[in-house]
Amino acid sequence: MTASRRANRAGLAFVSPTFIVVLVVVVLPIAWTVLLAFQKAKLVDIQGMGLFGNWSLDNFAQVFDSAGFWSSLTTTLLYTAGATLGSVALGLIAALALRKPFRGRGLLRAAMLLPYVAPVVAVAFVWEVALSPQYGVVNDWGRRLFGWDDPIAFLSTREYEVHLLGMHVDIPLALLTVIAFECWRYFPFAFLFILARLQAVPDGLEEAALVDGATISQRFRHILLPQLMPVIALLCVLRFIMTFNKFDDVYLLTGGGAGTNVAAVRVYDFLTARYDVGAAAAQALVLAAALMILLGFYFKLFGNKVQEES
Amino acid sequence: MTRKAALTRAHVEERIFGVLRWCVIAFLAVITLLPFYYMLLLSVKPIDALLLDPGSLLISAKDFTLTTYRDVLRSTDAGGQGFLRFLLNSALVSLGTVVLTLLAAVPGAYAVSRLKFFGHRQVSALFLAVYLFPATLLAVPLFVVFAKMGLSSSLVGLAIVYVAQTVPVSIYMLKNYLVTIPASIEEAAALDGCTRLQTVRKVILPLTLPSLMATGLYVFMIAWNEFLFALLFLAAVPGKWTVSLGLAQLSNGIEVPKTVLMAGSVVLTIPVVLLFFAAERLLTEGLTSGADKS
């Protein structure tokens, strides 16, 4: 037996346990979701149902026709785009600020990872209490420092009227609040990756620019940013995918109310409120398809940068 | 003249960014530490003190109380919220997930990083693609299958779902570490007469220990913090609730004071945070290794 054939055999032998686990707990369930999406399936019927038969497109018709599908897709996109850009931008700023050593940097760096590692239920709950109109610290300080007349219900106000330079603007307050929460919770993730990349930038590059008289902003623009671009692009993709499918943050903060009904929460509602497995599967599938299309566009536009990175 | 102008611009920028940097550092410290301080503060306050002065960020010695913790930890029979039980459930599920995930991920990561076998590119692509599928997509069929098998309200079922969530990222982390171990070490072991399985067990696994620990910790944290599947599978069986689920369910009840729930949040957060700080360097390196090559 040649060495390459031996390696081939060993490789297949080593990979098969992992492969079987992934097949059973991930690939098969996803395949079954696809089947369920084309069947009329309430949870009570499932017991006696075969895998095949009764194919129809009813579930999809129902999903597309149902009130709030398109608005929830828009909400999801706004939420995802806002949270992705916000968390990556904040992570970049944090990484730049903490790049050079100072006293207590290690401690602060560790503390900054707290929002990311703490359980979502606990932190969502802290935000809820802090933002509460009745006993929240934010409203109390807002009234003391900024003279707010009425307490602001951050998590249950769909539209909040703002007076700015004589203009009245309605801002989607609850949606902005959940986006802020998401930025806060996930900027440490971007921070970690960008800082790791920053520390690998060769010193010589910047020193040469310094000798040539480049200012801080010029050095960032022309030296650091090009070096960081691949990791920033990768982070944007990763955060976009994860936020798009995010369920718990929004569910815990607002329950999907006040204009924050993102698609993942709708899937959950289909599943648990109506036990309509077919419709939930169809909705989840439509989401996955939308995500793939968006990613397809992205890779077409920025494909090279991301490919370099991975 | 131009040289002088450039110098002043550099000077001005240095000043501005020097100040700005400290503002950013202060801002980051406030937004990351204050919420956790607030959580801790409310958990040791009586509810009346909170309602009386919601803006206070300090606590007087006479207000300080630990009854909130007693309430939240005591079993329901004794009039508490039964969080000790929930902590035990969470610990069981999380540890089980760590063991199962590592068992499933280690051989796969080794194969993908070391061996050129037929289809190894496709397999590593598959493991990554799995990462892209939403948890909600998995939730539907798993919900149905588990309902059918009677696993839907058991901790074992939950651990299996968590394995599905954590295997891809574990393979990714382990693989990034394995490729840094020189192949010559394995060749030396092979010359000494080790079979491949022996090489993996006696040479590779001990060398991979830091990465195994980092991956295990990360998996533990994911399992401990998870909420959606716990809610889907266990909401109807209070005896099986994990801490996350227990806290979320209790916050829906109106009769439980917010300060008691804050004590619950602290209890839920402390184990992960302690673990994280104990192994911070290990974890951040395990997570970001590979981020610095482009």
From TrEMBL, chain A:
It comes from the Bacteria. Keywords: Cell membrane, Membrane, Transmembrane, Transmembrane helix, Transport. The chain crosses the membrane at residues 12-38, 77-98, 110-130, 173-195, 223-242, 277-299. InterPro entries: MetI-like, MetI-like_sf, UgpAE/MalFG_permease. Gene3D superfamilies: MetI-like. It is found in: Cell membrane. It is a multi-pass membrane protein. Its main location: membrane. Residues 73-296 form the ABC transmembrane type-1 domain. The keyword Magnesium does not apply. GO terms for cellular component: plasma membrane. GO terms for biological process: transmembrane transport. Belongs to the binding-protein-dependent transport system permease family. This is Transporter.
TrEMBL record, chain B:
One of its GO terms (biological process) is transmembrane transport. The chain crosses the membrane at residues 20-40, 91-113, 125-147, 153-174, 203-221, 227-248, 260-279. One of its GO terms (cellular component) is plasma membrane. Residues 87-279 form the ABC transmembrane type-1 domain. It is a multi-pass membrane protein. It comes from the Bacteria. CDD domains: TM_PBP2. This is Transporter. The lineage of its organism: Bacteria, Bacillati, Actinomycetota, Actinomycetes, Kitasatosporales.
